[in-house]
Design a protein that fits this description.
Strand content: 25-35%
Largest sheet: 4 strands, antiparallel
Distance between the termini: 59 Å
Structural class: alpha+beta
CATH superfamily of the largest domain: RNA polymerase II/Efflux pump adaptor protein, barrel-sandwich hybrid domain
Oligomer: single chain
Number of domains: 2
Helix content: 10-25%
Strand order of the largest sheet: 3-10-8-5
Shape: elongated
Length: 157
């Protein structure tokens, strides 16, 4: 498989909504993963090429968007939602043996570090732009996050 075929396969995987594709041949093995919700499609591919995989993607079930976050924000209209400024992996502490940056009930002020988001091997400290009290942490530690995904609820009072 040459680089052009690999690039086409990556484009296909990103557009199709498939979570993971693995291909093994005598000379190499390639696995392409995305940060989307898991979708399971099982297919036997006789010849390995991106067009041969398209029928398998058509079998893919529709993934419903997560709706629970919207009612939680609507019920608590006085709270401020702190959202992710980037795509990456969410971490609540600098390392597993370090204390968490913030916990529910902690008072924060503008400029306080709330979490770290790892993107492309860079660890970005996410600072608060508001002052208040952390009411809820909306993301689990070491979870992938999307751009503009709610991370924390803060009571500004």
């Amino acid at each position: 498989m040459d680089i052009k075929q690999i690039q086409e396969l990556i484009k296909f995987v990103s557009k199709s909504g498939v979570n993971e594709v693995s291909i093994e041949q005598k000379e190499f093995k390639i696995t392409i993963k995305t940060n989307q919700a898991p979708t399971f499609v099982q297919a036997t591919v006789p010849g390995v090429s991106a067009p041969a995989l398209q029928p398998a993607a058509a079998v893919q079930p529709q993934v419903e968007p997560a709706a629970p976050a919207a009612p939680a924000v609507a019920d608590t209209s006085n709270l401020i939602t702190i959202k992710s400024p980037m795509i990456g992996t969410f971490y609540r502490s600098a390392s597993p043996d370090k204390p968490l940056f913030v916990n529910v009930g902690d008072e924060i002020k503008a400029g306080d570090v709330l979490c770290i988001i790892e993107a492309m091997k860079l660890f970005n400290e996410i600072e608060s732009e508001v002052s208040g009290k952390i009411v809820k942490v909306l993301v689990d530690n070491s979870s992938p996050v999307e751009y503009d995904q709610p991370l924390f609820l803060v009571d500004p009072a």
